[in-house]
Amino acid sequence: MSLAADLETAVFDRVPQRAVSIVDAHAHVGPYSEFFIPQCEPADLVRVMDRCGVDRAVLSSHLAIQLDARSGNEATAAAVAAHPDQLAGYLVVNPWQNPAEELARWGDDPRFVGVKLHPDLHAYPLTGSRYAPVWEFAERSGCLVLTHTWTGSPFDDPKHLGMVADRHPEVVLLAGHAGALPEGFDQAIEVAAAHPRVLLEICGSYHSGATITRMVRALGASKVVFGSDFPFIDLRYSLGRLIFADLDTEDRIAVLGGNASRLFAWRGRPPADDRPTG
């Protein structure tokens, strides 16, 4: 049986898949201030991961990306400490809340495997000088940076990502949502194509199996990374778009987890297990 058939059979049989190592590169935990989200705690994410057969998720707390980076990063560290085999953290840097101090506090903590920026929520452009400590840390350590992107935003439109990549070509940039809106997908593809260290992460309400396939065919599977945006979007729904996308076996393995395992290995952490990771 092929990998695609194994994955699809697991879905239809409602059992966890065991064919490939899956890494969710974009998740969150905790309550969100603008609307109610049920089942948003770390244990809720882990329970859904177990049900789906997802090995690892990399998350940031809603508290960190919205209101209080310091307390929110503490919540992320606690979540990872409670589930060290399945969760890893993004260190959120709010440009208005002592970026250098947060990086110094957590930069050597192995619970954090990436930096997360949310220029839209923080109302500060990705190209702004307050992010200088982030780029310095990323260049020095090899740590990847996941940034929110939203087409048309004055803070994190894909064009901003391209400008940062021009200035900091050695930094690995993961474009959260890949521009988010259909009218921006082509622009996100163009930015990733022009910059070797820019990759597209594919969570979002407007993505589908067809858009994922288009990105893989335009850029190659090594430039596309699976993420769910849990709990904004259910992990099962996000995963289904990719499982049923028109991809060959090697591309599917790479996007599901192989690329993420490579990106998060800058601290020397091995892949989750010995199943195919690309």
From TrEMBL:
InterPro entries (alphabetical): ACMSD, Amidohydro-rel, Metal_Hydrolase
Domain of life: Bacteria
Lyase recorded as keyword: yes
Residue span(s) of domain Amidohydrolase-related: 23-264
Record key words, sorted: Lyase
PANTHER family in the cross-refs: 2-AMINO-3-CARBOXYLMUCONATE-6-SEMIALDEHYDE DECARBOXYLASE (PTHR21240), ISO-OROTATE DECARBOXYLASE (EUROFUNG) (PTHR21240:SF28)
Protein name from the UniProt record: Amidohydrolase
The organism of origin for this protein: Plantactinospora mayteni
Lineage: Bacteria, Bacillati, Actinomycetota, Actinomycetes, Micromonosporales
